[in-house]
Amino acid sequence: MATRTHIDTWFKKEDYWAVIIALGLILISTAAFYNGSAKLLSTMAINIPGWSTDFGKIVGYLSNNLAGIAYLFGFFAVAFTGAGRILGYRSTNYLASFSVLFILSVIVTILGSNKFIKDWQLETPLLALLTGMIISNMVKLPQWFQSGLRTEFYVKTGIVLMGATLPFTVIMQAGPLAVMQATIVAVTTFTVIYFAATRLFGLDPRFGATLAAGGSICGVSASIAIGGACRAEKEHVSISISMVIIWAVAMIFLLPVAAKSLGLAPGPAGAWIGTSEFADAAGFAAAEAMADERAVKTFTLMKVVGRDMFVGIWALLVAFLSVTRWENKNVAEASRVSTSEIWRRFPKFIIGFFAASIFTTLVIACLDPKLGATFTKEVIGPIKSLRGWTFTWTFLCIGLTTRIKELTSFGWKPLAAFAIGVVINVPLGYILSNILFVDYWLGVK
């Protein structure tokens, strides 16, 4: 009976289904590549081309890729709805909701590909966020539509897919200074926000940890992962996400302007953005505003490879503290807490991220250079595109479940604690990127 209960619980977790869906897609794509039939994946990897006033270009692209759009929708609709049924969501409502979400994502992606909108730094994920917020604050969403607004499900799936696009060799090549800088930033900012929240403003430790994770590691996904690991209140996770969104949007505009005004080189500027931004999508938009690929590369090394990897470490640490300290007042009982409880709370999609990274690295290593390049083009390339769609659904869901009135109802304490972290984080990032480690970042090509 115990085994059966364990299995039933295993299948009732979004983390596992996010890993199953993402790793399943990666394995199927790899098998198709070896069988010479990777065309299906590239067909469903829809990439809306850039356009300015020639809307006919978009109409022509959509007309020529109707099959790919259908495959893209079909795969994820079946995967998410099927998993949702096992998780306890009503299938008809979920499918209907995801269908609307998918249509919105196509519209938003088309708009996000427009040159005029890009010039305003409104990349597709942020445009999805704003679109969702406009809709949710102007129209009362029907109850059935809530079924498919599964922010955590989509972002977890996207993070595992991100692992496949980030070979483990890239992580290893990031260099000791990049890892050192990421460590300094993550530890310092997390500590500052956590102690400001708990010691200065008396917030719940689990709330403080969730806020600190969002400000020091990888924004929305960190707030979700750490909030789940320490069993923070749902509203605490929502407030943390709101803090990340508010500051991430502000930094999209402020950091590139500041970097250009100070005359920073692309490499150090990208590292500074990677140190000081709070969300990957927003950070990419800010780095791309530097109009130099070196800024994007150093941003990736700092933010995605460096800081984002702390999610697993922080989740494990926070889960341990939550079990042994925050939830258990009896020290004797706390000392006897089983490590299985910590494992149960550890976000399993982080393991999926590393599994995907190691898997694709091994596959490429086993191929000759020419085939490896082909694999990267025919498998990794499309997976990057599919990852982008999952993040678009994520930001749409965040927007569709966020109301302005609620953003202003959380009080001043969380905002103040997060703001203190920003005041420390931004100057620290500048000092590390443009003074202490500037030679390293200037050398990244």
Reconstruct the topology from this structure.
Elements: H1 2-10, H2 14-34, H3 39-44, H4 55-64, H5 66-87, H6 91-112, H7 115-119, H8 124-138, H9 151-165, H10 168-172, H11 176-200, H12 205-216, H13 219-229, H14 234-261, H15 266-276, H16 280-288, H17 293-307, H18 310-326, H19 331-334, H20 339-345, H21 348-366, H22 369-400, H23 404-407, H24 412-436, H25 438-442
Helix pairs in contact: 2-9, 2-21, 2-22, 5-6, 6-8, 6-22, 8-22, 9-21, 9-22, 11-12, 11-17, 11-24, 12-13, 12-14, 12-18, 12-24, 13-14, 13-18, 14-15, 14-16, 14-24, 15-17, 15-24, 16-17, 18-20, 21-22
Walkthrough of the structure:
The protein is mainly alpha-helical. The chain has one domain (2-442). The chain contains 25 helices and no strands. The longest helix is centred in the last third of the chain and has 32 residues, at 369-400. The radius of gyration is 21 Å and the shape is globular.
